[in-house]
Predict the 3D structure of the following.
Amino acid sequence: MKHLLAKWTHWILAILTPLGIWGIAGFAFVDASFLGMPLDFIVGGYVYASPHLFLLLSAMAAFGSTLGSIIIYWIGYKGGEVLVVKRMGAARFQKIHASFEKYGFLALMVPAMLPPPTPFKLFVLSAGVTEMRLSRFVSAIFLGRLLRFCLLALLVIKFGPEIVTLFGGAIHNHLRLTLAILAALVLAGWWIRLVRKRNRNRKNHLATE
């Protein structure tokens, strides 16, 4: 099986590499929809070769990843709940389901920012199962991926492509701490959004009196 996956990976690399800047979108699409690719290394390689295009390359990678994720979303939307529950268990699925209902946009954007081993496709599948609005889904994926790839690109420009391995290893070894920090950021963002909404409603109420 590993030999077959390696063969597919080399075949995809041979096809997409000559496409230039569009190739990075192709790699991201394949990674999000079908076959997991060493996407951070690929993006890092593109950025290292053309650092002045880092923003465009990050956007193209985010675009490809968003398009690929729509396929997984569609599978979940059309009836992927059984698959999700089987992969993560009923209890964990209920927690993710509740997070989508409570936090919506941020519940998907934050996982989109995280590198492997985050089970990103399961979050995407869950978004489809919970029938998250497609416009919000696309916005959350694109923004999360764009922030992730921009950060990766800046690190590569500053420290070289070797930072991809160090960064990925740090996340892997301190995954719980990373998730805790991101959860705190999500809660802070949700609280700020709630306060702003209350203030806006208060101003509208005073304006109508």
Summary: Residues 1-5 have pLDDT under 50 and may be disordered. The CA atoms of residues 44 and 161 lie 6 Å apart.
